[in-house]
Amino acid sequence: MDVIHSATSATIDGRLVILAGTNNYLGLTYDAECRAAAIAAIETMGTGTTGSRMASGNYAGHRALEQELASAFGWPSCIVFSTGYQANLGAVSALAGEGDFLLIDADSHACIHDGCRLSNATTIRFRHNDPENLERRLARLGEDASRALIVVESLYSTLGDRAPLREIVEIKRRYGAWLLVDEAHSFGVFGQNGLGLCESLGLLDEVDFIVGTFSKSLGGVGGFCLGRHAEAEMLRMVSRPYIFTASPPPSVIAATHQALRRVLQGQDLRNRLWRHADHLYSEVARLGYRLGTTTPAPVAALVFDSREEAQALWQSLLDAGIYTNLMIPPATPAGVSLVRISLSAAHSDEDISHVVAALAAHMRRTRPLAAA
């Protein structure tokens, strides 16, 4: 990006483009109140903390943000981390230790896999979004299933598919295991209050831990781990990514705090985002593209068997003034290649129509029979 103009536009190589490859789901990076809060924080508290939360970097703003997040969920514990990556790294590695078990979805984000590596627990992977496969692995643990922490994402950002959370919760309950849900890509997007897919499905009383990030719907950088049990506060004492990292700067915390207030009252933004998602998914399917999931999501993955096909579409969209994400192996599951389109409430209807028109034009050029 040479110049960023708004939540949905930038200049790349001297050309104005629509940004359809960010995680700015609610478009809050340019929200006037969020920007004003960040500027005011810099003026009063400076540009950084220069210390960890365990030392000089524990400001009143950090604690206030934690309290408001915990209050939104009605849970007793929330810990803010410096990045979303560190939130998973710090939570997963600290929650399970020697003699414990981590059962993780095979398609989990790298930070979850790295959290497992940092932990002394035994890591067991189950097939992506396969509750039966998860249950078989839990059953083999016998009485030790009560020492197992299941870790899943609610919305997987590569393909845009959702975890079968109801089934996973039932298995967790049946075996007495624990459950951590990463709501990085669903926080702000799902639920009456924007708290995520667990809220939307009415499962907040069944989940033990929720991890999220500030770098998607909240438009900043940072992360958090919420605990339904008060004992989760003990993570502060044992989580190395929390203890040995400088805390988020005051400007980021202030902007995130303001963004959180907007998210909690942001049904208007969510309605606009879902209108865009429904429209795009409908048109992409009509044009004959293969989608990572048929259920609309803020992420639309157009899947190809060959790298060359995915690269051709990505370049075609960029030539049409649309920035998207090209994803190829080994960064993708099952060796597929894909072009990922990310939507924002800040996109206009004209932006979405332009994306659809560019997809249609590419289909006509490359597969005229399919486009007919």
Q: Average pLDDT, to the nearest integer? A: 96
**Helix vs. strand class:** alpha/beta
Strand content: 15-25%
Q: Runs with pLDDT <50, length 5+? A: none
Counting H and I runs of at least 4 residues, what is the number of helices? 14
Topology:
Blueprint: E1 3-6, E2 9-12, E3 15-19, H1 32-45, H2 60-73, E4 77-81, H3 84-95, E5 101-105, H4 110-118, E6 122-126, H5 131-140, E7 148-153, H6 165-175, E8 178-182, H7 197-200, E9 209-213, E10 223-227, H8 235-238, H9 240-243, H10 250-264, H11 267-287, E11 299-304, H12 307-319, E12 322-323, E13 325-327, E14 337-342, H13 349-366, H14 368-371
Parallel strand pairs: 3-12, 5-6, 5-7, 7-8, 8-9
Antiparallel strand pairs: 1-2, 2-3, 4-10, 9-10, 11-14, 13-14
